[in-house]
Amino acid sequence: RARLGVLVSGSGSNLQALLDACAQADFPAEVACVVSNVPTAFGLERARKAGVSAVALDHKAFGSRADFERALGETLRASGVEWVCLAGFMRLLSADFLAGFPGRVLNIHPALLPAFPGLHAQRQALERGVKITGCTVHFVDAGTDTGPIIAQAAVPVLPDDTEASLSARILAEEHRLYPLAVRLAVTGKVTLEGTRTRVDAQAAVGDQSL
Ligand code: GAR
Fold first, then answer.
1. Cα dihedral angle (98, 100, 106, 110), rounded to 10 degrees?
2. Which Gene3D superfamilies does this one have (predicted)?
């Protein structure tokens, strides 16, 4: 089973979805370690409760981004992490860090990329007046939410939506999509082809949700 390191900054509900998926006997990955740059993040509690190593690395306690990322890389490697999943992790990672896990860093974003990258994606969608938005799991490159797309799910924007109601509707889809995308990635059913990915046709057809 592929060893995942999950990085969180907050509630960690996507981490929970991954932990729950990994608890299934036929899931091809396990969570080896959870790291948060926010020591009070509830995600760390979720990890401990699941019996998974939970490490707080407060980025503010490091002198530079490079120092923080070095500690992060060392922590992940010490747990034998092969794949890194960003799950509400609100720090950008440098090309140097990414080079340590080539093609093996995934992120989930609450919009249909390339629309609405960066912060407050749900608010951006409401302000722009789109009628459909959603979530995206993608490989991470050195840009902000620019990496090759693995999987997406759409949700409607309803007339009375607030940022909170829209976020909740997207989050429900995130919890379904992230485990599915991790399965595709770690089993090699999705592969990188430059700025795009190729998703194995059988895998996509076999899974209703793609
Ligand atoms: C999720 O909606 C995730 O897509 C988003 O933060 C939330 C984290 O929730 N990530 C980003 O906006 C990254 N730019 P969670 O902590 O409950 O998984």
1. -30
2. Formyl transferase, N-terminal domain (3.40.50.170)
